Amino acid sequence: PLAEICGRGGSHRRIVGGREVAPGSYPWMVGLKRKGNSGAFCGGALIDKQYVLTAAHCFWKYGEWTKNATDIVVRVGAHNLRATEPEAMDLGVASIRIHKNYTTASKGLDIAVIKLETRVKFSRRVHPICLPPGNSADDYAGRVGMLTGWGDTTEGGVSSSVLMAVDVQVWNNSACDESLDQFDVISSMICAGDRAGGKDSCQGDSGGPLMVNRQSDGRWVLIGIVSTGQGCARPNNPGINTRVSDYIDWIPTQMS
């Protein structure tokens, strides 16, 4: 059962400002790539043998939807996207299921489920993250969350070839709403960032996981999907993520 294997791995070491992780330490992390490109345009998290959770806005480019799944591959088990790694595999996409009411990331509903063409075989380097309970009263505010991705390492900078991680504070929504003048922060969003700045997700990290370590058993739980924000790592400008617990009933309806 998934509940027995999900969320094992990760590092409990505090990471400041973004640092390369040990290979294989976040085995649910996947990179979404366009065929023929080495870099990832978005991240995602493996939640089952054949399904990945990511952001809807990853498939909106040049004013139109990339509904054509044949253009995209999902790299699993990877650490360095620009190297040949024996454990890494590029898997084809069978379908992309975007939330039907999604319009733009600033309005929420920024969530999509990718069905892989083939089921992955779970291993130490490839297995799923745990999903949060749907009825939880826990808004995770004040907790230390972890972000991982291959995105830009500075605002307007270049993407990373190796998987990076950074720990960030989860904010309560009212404080987040007050800090972000360009956004209306709604309950289905969850904010995370460093008040002093310097720690955040950035371009290319979209769709990747915001996760917390479950205190009861040390497993990692997916609480957010990187969505949007004002720049990257600016002081008092937390990043906005899709709050996964709000979609716990929706996710299984897309897995068939």
Written description of the protein model:
This protein is mainly beta and 256 residues long. The protein has 2 domains: 27-128 and 248-254, Thrombin, subunit H; 143-245, Trypsin-like serine proteases (Thrombin, subunit H), CATH 2.40.10. It contains 3 helices and 15 strands. It has helices at 2-5, 173-179, 250-253, and strands spanning 19-20, 29-34, 42-46, 51-54, 60-61, 64-65, 72-76, 89-98, 112-116, 144-149, 164-170, 189-193, 209-213, 220-228, 239-243. It has a 6-stranded antiparallel β-barrel with strand order 10-11-12-15-14-13. The chain has a 6-stranded antiparallel β-barrel with strand order 2-3-4-9-8-7. The radius of gyration is 16 Å and the shape is globular. The relative contact order is 0.21. The mean pLDDT is 88.
Features:
single chain, 256 residues, mainly beta, Thrombin, subunit H, 2 domains, 6-stranded antiparallel barrel, 6-stranded antiparallel β-barrel, 3 helices, 6% helix, globular
Kindly name the structural category.
mainly beta
Distance between the termini: 18 Å
Mean model confidence by pLDDT: 88
Classify the fold: give the CATH topology of the largest domain: Thrombin, subunit H
Keywords: Disulfide bond, Hydrolase, Protease, Secreted, Serine protease
Organism: Oppiella nova
InterPro entries: Peptidase_S1_PA, Peptidase_S1_PA_chymotrypsin, Peptidase_S1A, Trypsin_dom, TRYPSIN_HIS, TRYPSIN_SER
GO biological process, one term: proteolysis
